[in-house]
Write a structure and sequence with these properties.
- By secondary structure, this protein is mainly beta.
- The protein has 14 helices and 136 strands.
- The strands form 49 sheets. The protein has an eight-stranded antiparallel sheet with strand order 119-118-117-130-129-128-127-126, with helices on one face. A seven-stranded antiparallel sheet has the order 125-124-123-122-121-120-131, with no helix packed on it. A six-stranded mixed sheet has the order 94-95-96-107-106-105, with no helix packed on it.
- The radius of gyration is 62 Å and the shape is extended.
């Protein structure tokens, strides 16, 4: 076929496709341009036409080719247009754009550098990105394999059998999995096939060019089958989407035939083979067909490499999928490029499409790109106008307790944690968060360190000391006796008593001691103790025939201790002693190693703790910074008991010769000494002797110069300390004059001068006129005089006479001048003017400035000389003044020159204030482990050499320079030799031990797992994930049924079985029962006559066929059938209970068998038509039986409605529970008697006796069942009550629940019935004042005062306070609902007290509970019981007075010294007083009225004193901290210990687990020492024992502890009473004996109290115990509404 329009046949395309594939497989390259249309035409021309083919076979192809030529022509036209546009653009002048590079999703300018990953660095050069691996990074090193280079972490396949990976320069290869090939070949790693045989191959066979067969391929040549055992024609699927067929020994495999999709993004759904378009995708641009469509780009079909490597004949069609960068991806997969993280790629129709990612806008101005990421992130943060770098932390400006941190542009803040460094730290400084220990904050007030702090103890001086309070006893004067004693209440010991061996003795008291096995008898006399030896009796310890030696006590240091007692010797907190077989055994208390290096031994504590640091004998608080006293160059800090030190950085000095003193680390410039005074370097000061010189200390020398004086504003100022600057006077002529003074001129007497503000003004005196023509002025005169005849004067030395008024100098004295005046000679010394220089020399007469006089030597003007006073200074004399300067020196050419001469020289060294010779070695002053060398002014220091060690973790001991193998330093932790601690690198799972300087670490041993198949858990230890229960294994999370009969549902969780009870569904009925073996209850009917009857059923009892029973709400009502006759001629058969009417007809209407009707107007009458065994049906009529309404109050009874027979109850009826079995109860109907049997109330109708009087004379009394005959003239009968007669008709109250009346000689009582009370888990029933039934209140707490006295607070703290005034015991400090006060009395003993009286304040009402049980309300004695609604209710139970208040307050007073206060939980946090604050924390119970914690119990108790005293004439005394056992002596203490031991003995043993006896034991010993010997000690002992027994009863344990000789209580045995330790608070009487015990206990919510009770089987009546049948006749007529009952405060009417 010829012609340009011929298209290639499909066969040619298949051959080209296969050729291209084979060429690529064998390394050949096929160009896309080489497969053009011309090539196809050439092939068409060269290929011969098949034989016998018709000539018109290519006609359709010619038509297709014509269309292609038309399209090519159109493209040529478009190409011409584009070329024209290009020519126009090339003619334009364009500025060359700077080359740019693309990487990481953005454009980079020329020369820019970036890192696409942590191992690669790129640079933009000439518009191309040049990337190379970073040097020096082992984790980034690539690999070279078979001439190819691979990046670090890259995975590649060098052949079909191996998969290799490059990791840090090394190549690791593993055998890869083989594809599912159909024909394996021996020797090859994976199955492969021969080259395919197609039509071309067949052609070759026909021409005879047959390829030799390989061994093992006989089946293939013969055509019998295919490899892998596939038969000819067999079809199979090696992969889910590949179908293979065996045809003539050739395997033909074909992929799915999928349509071409017109979208960009597609995916292959699970379980399908062909991809589908994603929803909303756009159509894809048209793709050219043929080879370019199959293998375009660099992505190849998924199975191409596997199938083309086979030599077997396989005809392949493309499977969906892509290979990209050495990895295979499923069709439709999205992935990131490995080489560029900013490329988002997808596999679509076997082609990989990659597009650059778009980064979101950054919130910071300069984002930073991190390695391995595409988009830059914020490096810093901006907060409050400030910028912070990534990872930087700072303190929030507005909240110093917030620490913020910048993390990738985000600010994260956390709360700063403050450690408690001291007990009472001062509040934080402004702008800081944590409290500091430079002061104290206590009781709401700030104290500076050293400032006194009030403690409440007058004998102690307490001061604030760095966040803690330190108290010291006040100094006391020396007593003039050897053994002064400290009297209670005083601070200093006096000679009025003796303190000897830790015990106090009164003056003139005699006592015995044991010293060194000798018996000594001593006596105290005015502070002096005298002792004498006595013979000791034989010890009573004997050794019996068998058993150990029994000794009663041990004696140690003069003190005796009982057998088995453990104690701590005085002053020896680390010693524990015990008495064993009469021998004291003492030993040291073993302390575990402290987890720190410098623990502190706290005074009074045995073992050291890490709360502070003890370092070189000094104690430092945790967190305190300090300087090491032995090594001042180390700054240290105490952290959790370990001191860590570091070298101090010294500031630079400003002088040439700095010095270091003892205990000083950093050198500093030397001080100056001038006139025996020391001045600090750099200090400016005035000369000590000459204030007119100003000096400065510099480099150890004081440099002084004259102070510069300012010019005075006046002409003649007064001289100041240095300068002439005082104008408040005048200095003139060598004299000083005050301001305003007049004085003669010092040299001219003829002038008069005046001083004004420092300036002098002089005027000439006035002279009188003279009569002569030539007056003369005589010497010493101011005015001229007329002359006289003058005379001459002889000169001294015979030099001739001097004329009148002639001046001359005496011979040899040129400094004096003489004057001759009229024959007399007067001489005077010539005045010297002040020298205008500082150091003038002495001239012939006056000081001269032509030289200098300095330090006693004269120097000529201009002469230079060394300073005689200052070293290294040169002086110059110039015009009479000397100036000195430091001799100039040339700068030294070494850093540490020697300072021996005036100028520094490099012939030695001066280092840190010390001088050293050149070549001298010396220790480093700053670091003792360094050795320094001086060489030519240079100092070099190096560490001292140390010997090599054989251990791996040596430790440098304190004070040593070299490490030693005597301990270990492991990851910053110091470990002693042999010490074991958790591994700091793995503290949970590993333990490390220090052995000879080396740490040996090993894993902790794992506990044994008790299950057969444990799983690895923490520390890789086996843990049981499964659970074993009842012999079966359950997996983790499995739920299963609990043990049989437990009604529990269990769950296995982390090896533990947790079970919870099944939740039963609610039932609609009140009566419920749980079957044996069942878990949930069911609705129950009635149990009667041994069988259960359903609800609402009726039956005839087997023993009474003419009676009928009815089941209604668990109550069985039985009564005799009441017959009704409705016919004129009834008849009654042998088995009939009621007469019958022969026909079922009534009122003219006939009824069928089974019909029932109401015969008349009475709805209770009913007739039934019944079949008979013989004869026609008959009619039987009777009255309907109404159920008994047991337990229904009268107020809840509902009358029957219209056409209803029976009444009903508005509430649920009473339940017959186990606690009520055998009890009897009267229902509202007096004709019934109900008894609790088989958990069912059985109510039986009462049979009335036959009466002999006519019905008209019969009368039924109210509340009675049976009628009686009227007696016309019968007198009114009275009733007996409490031994007295009560008139008929009168009513009275027995208790809050029962009211009685006298009716015709019979006592009728009505009782209120309470509905069942159900309180919550945090509630308890409490008495409701004025009502019979209790109410629910929050669960109460109690406080107790007992003994002399001791107070046990609501929160459980035991206090001892001995004040004898009135105090607040408990008070509602918020609402003011109540206040309980106690008044204490000393009972004739000083220093101790007992509770005398209790006062309860309820609003305006005051109740006083007095000794002996008397009670006063508002000043008036009242009898008990007493009710004052709605405030309070008082009653007497045994010997205990009980007060109940409306708020739930309850006060129990035994009439002697013990009082208990109980308040409901609603008062939590509202209580104050001696009973504490009731907040659940016993530590803060010592709060005073101001809310401040007080230091001692005495101060706390005195703070709650109230104004009222115990009575007139009985002044009270404040409480003090006293120890009665110290005052009573050792013998009393020993006896008290022995008697109080009953608290720890067997009678109270059951209570020890719930109430610890130790606080009560201490209180018992305290009381017995205070009470003294005799009967008072017995009373004190019983007080404490009863208090402890009361706490036990509150905890649910009732100990039987009393005995005939131990606190016995006498009861009236002749009246039948016996003592009961926990008797019922509501005993049985004749009036409540019918009340079931369970109901009686439920409504009596008072606590049980010890007292006299009637024994079981007897009831109390008129103060006697009698049998119930001996009670007077009392008729219980039914319930009564509570409003109709009288209260206890009302007296019964008619009772005298």
């Amino acid at each position: 076929m010829a012609g340009s329009g011929a298209a290639p046949p499909p066969l040619v395309l298949q051959l080209l496709t296969l050729a291209l594939a084979l060429g690529m497989r064998r390394g050949g390259a096929v160009s896309r341009e080489s497969l053009g249309l011309a090539d196809i035409q050439d092939y068409d021309q060269q290929a011969p036409a098949p034989a016998g083919a018709p000539q018109d076979q290519g006609r359709p192809l010619k038509e297709v080719l014509k269309r292609l030529e038309a399209e090519v022509t159109q493209l040529r036209e478009q190409n011409k247009d584009l070329q024209e546009r290009v020519r126009r653009l090339e003619s334009c002048e364009c500025r060359p754009a700077p080359p740019q590079c693309w990487g990481l999703g953005r454009a980079w300018p020329e020369g820019a550098r970036w890192e696409p990953d942590p191992c690669t660095a790129c640079v933009c050069q000439d518009g191309a990105a040049v990337c190379a691996p970073k040097p020096g990074l082992p984790q980034c090193r690539g690999c070279s394999h078979s001439g190819q280079t691979y990046g670090n972490g890259e995975t590649f396949s060098p052949d079909a059998c191996s998969t290799c990976r490059c990791l840090e320069g090394a190549v690791t290869c593993t055998q890869g999995p083989c594809p599912g090939g159909p024909c394996p070949e021996p020797g090859a790693c994976c199955p492969h096939c021969e080259p395919g045989r197609d039509s071309a191959g067949a052609g070759k066979a026909e021409t005879g060019a047959q390829e030799p067969a390989r061994p093992g391929n006989a089946a293939l040549e013969s055509g019998a089958g295919c490899p892998e055992g596939h038969r000819a024609g067999e079809v199979w699927r090696p992969e889910p989407c590949v179908t293979c067929t065996c045809q003539a020994g050739t395997v033909r495999c074909q992929g799915p035939s999928c349509p071409v999709l017109g979208c960009l993004e597609s995916y292959t759904p699970p379980g399908q083979c062909c991809p589908v378009c994603r929803p909303g995708d756009l159509p894809a641009p048209p793709q050219p067909q043929g080879v370019r469509h199959l293998f375009g780009g660099h992505a190849f079909p998924r199975v191409l490499s596997t199938l083309l490597s086979s030599d077997l004949p396989v005809i392949l069609e493309t499977l969906p999928g892509c290979e990209y960068e050495g990895q295979l991806y499923e069709e439709g997969a999205n992935f990131l490029s490995n080489s560029d993280p900013c490329l988002q790629c997808s596999c679509l129709r076997s082609l990989v499409h990659c597009m650059p990612m778009k980064c979101p806008p950054s919130s910071c101005p300069e984002p930073v790109l991190r390695p391995g990421r595409c988009c830059p992130t914020c490096q810093g943060c901006v907060e409050g106008g400030s910028r912070w770098e990534h990872g930087q932390e700072w303190t929030a400006p507005r909240d110093p307790c917030q620490i913020c941190r910048c993390l990738e542009g985000q600010v994260q803040c956390r709360q700063r944690e403050c450690s408690s460094l001291c007990p009472y730290p001062a509040r934080p400084l402004p702008g800081t968060c944590c409290p500091v220990c430079d002061g104290c904050f206590l009781n709401g007030r700030e104290y500076r360190s050293g400032e006194p702090v009030g403690s409440g103890d007058a004998c102690a001086d307490c001061r604030c000391a760095n966040g803690s309070v330190q108290c010291e006893p006040l100094p006391c004067p020396v007593a003039p006796c050897p053994h002064p004693g400290r009297i209670p209440g005083q601070c200093c010991p006096v000679c009025a008593g003796c303190e000897y061996q830790g015990h106090y003795y009164e003056s003139q008291e005699t006592f015995r001691l044991q010293e060194g096995g000798r018996c000594v008898r001593c006596s105290c006399q005015a502070g002096e103790v005298s002792c004498e030896e006595q013979e000791c009796p034989i010890a009573p310890c004997t050794l019996p025939d068998s058993g150990p030696q029994l000794c009663p006590a041990c004696v140690l240091d003069g003190e005796e201790f009982a057998e088995g007692v453990q104690w701590e010797p005085d002053g020896q907190p680390c010693t524990a002693c015990s008495c064993r077989d009469g021998v004291p055994v003492c030993g040291a208390v073993l302390c575990s190693a402290a987890p720190c290096q410098h623990p502190t031994q706290t005074p009074g504590a045995c073992c050291p703790s890490c709360e502070s640091c003890t370092y070189r004998g000094q104690v430092y608080a945790n967190g305190q910074n300090f300087t090491d006293a032995d090594s001042p160059c180390h700054a240290c800090r105490c952290e959790d008991g370990t001191v860590r030190c570091s070298l101090v950085d010294c500031p630079p000095t400003t002088c040439a010769r700095p010095q270091s003193g003892p205990g000083q680390c950093c050198p500093r410039c030397p001080d100056c000494t001038l006139e025996e005074q020391v001045f600090v370097d750099g200090q400016s000061f005035s000369h000590p002797r000459d204030p007119c010189q100003e000096c400065r200390c510099q480099d150890g020398h004081a440099r002084c110069q004259r102070r510069a004086c300012p010019r005075a504003p006046c002409t003649h100022p007064l001289p100041g300390p240095c300068c002439l600057s005082n104008c408040n006077g005048c200095a003139f002529g060598g004299k000083e004059y005050p301001n305003g003074a007049d004085f003669p001129h010092p040299s001219d007497p003829c002038r008069l001068c005046h001083c004004l503000s420092g300036s002098v003004r002089c005027l000439a005196r006035r002279c009188p006129p003279l009569p002569c023509a030539e007056p003369v002025l005589l010497p010493g005169e101011c005015c001229r005089q007329c002359p006289a005849s003058p005379s001459g004067c002889p000169r001294p030395g015979g030099l001739g006479a001097a004329h009148h008024q002639e001046h001359f100098f005496p011979p040899g004295d040129p400094c004096r001048r003489c004057l001759c005046l009229d024959g007399s000679v007067s001489c005077q010394r010539l005045p010297c003017p002040p020298a205008p220089c500082a150091h003038p020399r002495q001239g012939p007469c006056c000081p001269s400035c032509d030289g200098c006089l300095y330090q006693g030597k004269e120097f000529a003007g201009g002469e230079r000389f060394p300073s005689p006073a200052l070293r290294c200074h040169d002086c110059l004399c110039w015009e009479g003044s000397v100036s000195c300067e430091l001799r100039p020196c040339a700068p030294a050419r070494c850093p540490f020159p020697a300072r021996g001469g005036c100028c520094p020289a490099c012939d030695g060294c001066e280092y840190l204030g010390e001088s050293y010779l050149s070549s001298q070695e010396f220790p480093d002053p700053r670091e003792p482990c360094n050795l320094c060398t001086c060489l030519g002014g240079f100092v070099t220091c190096s560490r001292r050499p140390c010997e090599p060690l054989s251990c791996s973790h040596p430790l440098t001991p304190s004070g040593s320079c070299c490490s030693a193998c005597q301990g270990c330093l492991y990851h910053g932790v110091t470990v002693a030799h042999g010490e074991t601690l958790p591994d700091p690198l793995d503290p949970t799972c590993s333990l490390c031990t220090c052995q000879d300087g080396s740490m040996h670490c090993q894993k902790k041993p794992c506990p044994a797992a008790l299950c057969p198949r444990p799983s690895p858990g923490p520390c890789f230890c086996p843990v049981c994930r499964s659970c074993f229960s009842q012999g079966r294994e359950h997996q983790d999370g499995e739920e299963f049924e609990g043990p049989s009969g437990s009604c529990e549902w269990c769950r296995c969780q982390a090896g533990q079985v947790s079970c919870e009870r099944l939740r039963c569904p609610p039932l609609p009925c009140m009566l419920q029962v749980t079957e044996q073996g069942g878990c949930c209850p069911r609705c129950r009917g009635c149990l009667a006559h041994g069988e259960e009857r359903p609800e609402g059923s009726s039956w005839a009892p087997p023993d009474s066929p003419c009676s009928s029973c009815l089941c209604h709400e668990g109550v069985v009502t039985c009564a005799r059938i009441q017959c009704v006759i409705t016919c004129a001629h009834p008849h009654q058969g042998p088995g009939d209970c009621c007469p019958r009417c022969s026909e079922c007809e009534h009122g003219g209407r006939k009824y069928k068998p089974g019909d029932s009707f109401q015969p008349g107007e009475d709805p209770c009458e009913v007739c039934i038509c019944e079949l008979q065994p013989e004869g026609p049906p008959s009619l039987r009529c009777h009255r309907q039986l109404c159920p008994s309404l047991v337990g229904c109050p009268a107020s809840q009874l509902l009358p029957p409605g219209p056409q209803r027979c029976c009444p009903s109850c508005a509430q649920a009826l009473s339940n017959c529970t186990e606690g009520l079995l055998g009890s009897e109860l009267a229902p509202p109907d007096p004709c019934y008697t109900c008894q609790c049997q088989d958990l069912t109330w059985l109510c039986v109708h009462q049979a009335c006796p036959a009466l002999g009087c006519p019905p008209s004379e019969r009368h039924t009394h109210p509340g009675s069942c049976c009628p009686t005959c009227r007696v016309p003239s019968a007198p009114t009968q009275s009733c007996a009550y409490q031994g007295r007669q009560v008139a008929s008709g009168e009513r009275w109250t027995v208790d809050t629940c029962t009211i009685c009346s006298c009716v015709a000689g019979t006592v009728h009582c009505q009782r209120q019935r309470c509905s069942p009370l159900s309180c919550g888990p945090n509630e308890a029933p409490a008495l409701n004042l004025g009502s019979c039934c209790p109410r629910c209140l929050p669960r109460p707490a109690s406080c107790m005062a007992f003994g002399d006295p001791h107070y046990r607070t609501f929160d459980g703290r035991l206090l001892h306070f001995q004040g004898s005034c009135s105090y607040v015991l408990a008070k509602d400090c918020r609402g003011g609902d109540f206040s309980v006060h106690v008044t204490n009395s000393d009972r004739g003993r000083s220093g101790v007290a007992w509770t005398q009286e209790v006062a309860v304040l309820l609003g305006e009402v005051v109740v006083r509970l007095l000794r002996g049980g008397a009670v006063m309300v508002d000043g008036r004695l009242v009898a008990l019981p007493y009710l004052r609604e709605p405030l309070l209710y008082l009653e007497l139970r045994g010997r205990t007075v009980m007060l109940h208040a409306q708020q739930g307050l309850q006060v129990l007073w035994d009439g002697q010294s013990r009082v208990e206060v109980s308040v409901p939980g609603s008062y939590r946090g509202r209580i104050c007083g001696l009973c504490g604050n009731f907040n659940g924390f016993a530590q803060d119970d010592l709060q005073g009225p101001e809310g401040l914690l007080l230091p001692t119990e005495a101060a706390f108790g005195n703070s709650w004193q109230v104004p009222e005293g115990p009575g007139p004439g009985r002044p009270c005394s404040k409480g003090h901290e006293v120890d009665p056992c110290r005052a009573a002596g050792y013998r009393a203490r020993r006896e008290a210990n022995g008697r109080c031991g009953v608290l720890k003995s067997s009678p109270f043993s059951r209570c020890h687990a719930v109430v610890p006896p130790e606080p009560f034991f201490a209180a018992c010993v305290y009381d017995l020492c205070a009470c003294g010997p005799g009967s008072s000690a017995d009373a004190c002992l019983c007080d404490v024992l009863e208090a402890y027994a009361s706490r036990c009863r509150q905890a649910g344990v009732t100990p039987a502890w009393r005995g005939p000789t131990l606190c016995a209580v006498g009861c009236a045995l002749d009246r039948g009473f016996v003592f009961d330790e926990c008797g019922p608070p509501c005993p049985r009487t004749c009036f409540n004996r019918h009340v079931p015990l369970g109901e009686l206990a439920a409504r009596c919510v008072r606590p049980c109290v010890p007292g006299c009770q009637c024994p079981a089987g007897l009831v109390e009546h008129e103060a006697h115990c009698i049998p119930p049948e001996a009670c007077p006749p009392v008729l219980l007529t039914g319930d009564q509404p509570p409003g109709n009952l009288l209260g206890p405060s009302q007296e019964p009417r008619g009772v005298p």
